[in-house]
Amino acid sequence: MTIAGRITLSTVAVILLTALVLALAVDFGIRRSLTRSEFERQQAFAERLAADLNGDVRGMREDAAALVLATPAAELLTAPGGAQRDRAKDEVLRAFRAELAAKPRYLQLRVIGEADGGREVVRVERSGEGEPVRTVADANLQPKGDRPYFTDTVSLPP
User: Do the Cβ atoms of 120 and 76 come closer than 8 Å?
Assistant: First the structure.
C-alpha cells in the first residue's frame, strides 16, 4: 500500500472514530436529559398526589369533627340507657347514613366507646364505593380496644 493510501485510510479511521465518539456523547446527553425530564415529571406527579392526599385527610378530619359536634355521639357514650340513649343512637345512625350517602368514598363510620374493651357502639358501612349503606346490628359490633388507632386516640387530651 502506498503512503497516500495509508494516509487516506488513517484519515478515514480517525473520522469514523471521531464520529462514533461524538454520536455516543450525544446519545448519552439525550438519555440523561430524558431521564432528568422524566424524573421531574414523576416528581411533579408525586407532589400533586401528595397535595391531593393531604387535602383528603384534612377533609376527613373536618368531617369527623363535624360529626362529633353535629350528633349526640358524646350523649350516646355517656347515657345510662333507655329512651335517651336510644334517641341519641338513632340520631347518630341517621347522621352517619347521610354522611356515607353523601360521600361515596367513605366505607365506614362508627362510634367506639371506652367501655367493654373499646367495643363499637354503632357502625354504618358499605362493602364498596357505590354499594348500599347498611347499619350493622348490635350483635355484630366488634371490640376495637386493642387497635393502635383506638389506644392512641384515647390517650390524647380531650
Answer: no
24-65 confidence digits (pLDDT tens): 888 888 777 777 778 888 889 999 999 999 999 999 889 888
- The whole-angstrom separation of Cα 111 and Cα 77 is 8
Q: What is the pTM of this model?
A: 0.67
For 55, the grid coordinates are: 387535602
Q: How many residues does the chain have?
A: 158
CA angle 134, 153, 95 (to 5 degrees): 30
Q: Which three cell numbers stand for residue 98?
A: 347521610
**Which one, of 142, 126, 145, 144, lies nearest residue 134 by Cα?**
126
CA distance 70 to 92: 9
CA distance 139 to 49: 40
The span from the CA of 100 to the CA of 47, in Å, is 29
What is the tens place of the pLDDT at every residue in 63-75?
888 888 888 888 8
